[in-house]
Design brief:
nine-stranded mixed beta sheet, alpha/beta, Rossmann fold, two-stranded antiparallel ribbon, 2 domains, 11 strands, globular, 292 residues
Length: 292
């Protein structure tokens, strides 16, 4: 019999085995919960040069992909001004925390390309909601999407906006029926607000593309309440994808890391939107956390 307090060889082996099992479980959990690495994805700035200004987009796709059935044109929330530029050969831009910007990689597969649209260069000081309703802005977006389509062989475009970016996406789609095959509006600004009318004056009968609304049931922002999402879905006779859960939240009610920005359920929301783009079937409501 071993002396009291002394560890036998078999006990030591058993302890080591349990430690290895715990390490393996930890490593597996870390692998599952880790962010998708950037490797295997190509990102660059594409610019359309117009008369006295430019408009650009941050374009991302899987490495090796040569043609794309689906192009996803992303319109970030307020202020919608990325100030895209290159520094030391790398794309640099503002609004990295915006829901659609930080979760853009989840759209990607061998058939899908993502383009995050900047404001036109001569609008970097303001980029008002009123400007986004103008024919000039519609023409700017069309010029940029045609530039990207020619460069990357994109077959069709879906326009996706979040928060104030929903104003951009709606009007760009309304004015470009041949280009915009689908529209997705998430956490939309209903208005009117200090920044403009939001979607309160939108004429949904002028939008020919199918429309999907996406909204968090607990959106805390006073300008983007869920009850209004239900009302606008009925008004536009378009489906509403309801999101619940997520977190933890941080920042102000209308900021990107609250339910307004789908924090904690980013991947699930993007995959549901991508499913609608590909199949036309409205996904079921999203509930629960989805760690990034």
């Amino acid at each position: 019999m071993p002396a009291q307090g002394r560890v036998t060889v078999s006990e030591r082996r058993s302890t080591i085995a349990r430690m290895r099992e715990r390490i393996n479980r930890f490593c597996l959990a870390a692998l599952i919960l880790a962010p998708v690495p950037v490797s295997g994805q190509v990102e660059q700035i594409v610019t359309a040069k117009l008369e006295r200004y430019t408009i650009a987009a941050l374009v991302m796709h899987q490495e090796g992909a040569k043609a794309f059935k689906h192009g996803i044109a992303i319109f970030p929330g307020h202020p919608g001004i990325l100030k895209l530029r290159e520094e030391n050969g790398q794309p640099q831009y503002d609004q990295r925390g915006n829901f659609l910007v930080r979760s853009r990689r989840h759209w990607l597969d061998d058939q899908t390309l993502v383009a995050v649209l900047d404001a036109p260069s001569d609008q970097w000081a303001t980029f008002t909601q009123e400007f986004r309703t103008t024919p000039r802005y519609g023409g700017d977006v069309a010029s940029l999407l045609r530039e990207i389509s020619g460069k990357f062989n994109v077959e069709q475009w879906t326009l996706v906006g979040t928060s104030e970016g929903s104003v951009s996406a709606f009007h760009a789609a309304r004015m470009n029926a041949p280009l915009a095959k689908r529209v997705i509006l998430s956490s939309s600004v209903w208005g009117p607000t200090n920044n403009g009318p939001g979607l309160s004056s939108a004429k949904f009968g002028e939008l020919s593309a199918p429309l999907l609304w996406v909204h968090h049931e607990s959106d805390p922002c006073q300008y983007t309440q869920y009850r209004d999402a239900r009302r606008y879905a009925e008004k536009s006779m378009s489906p509403l994808l309801t999101v619940r859960g997520g977190g933890p939240e941080k920042g102000g009610a209308c900021q990107a890391f609250t339910a307004h920005g789908f924090v904690g359920v980013e991947r699930a929301v993007v995959l549901a939107m991508r499913s609608w783009v590909k199949t036309g079937a409205v996904p079921p409501a999203i509930t629960g956390n989805n760690p990034q």
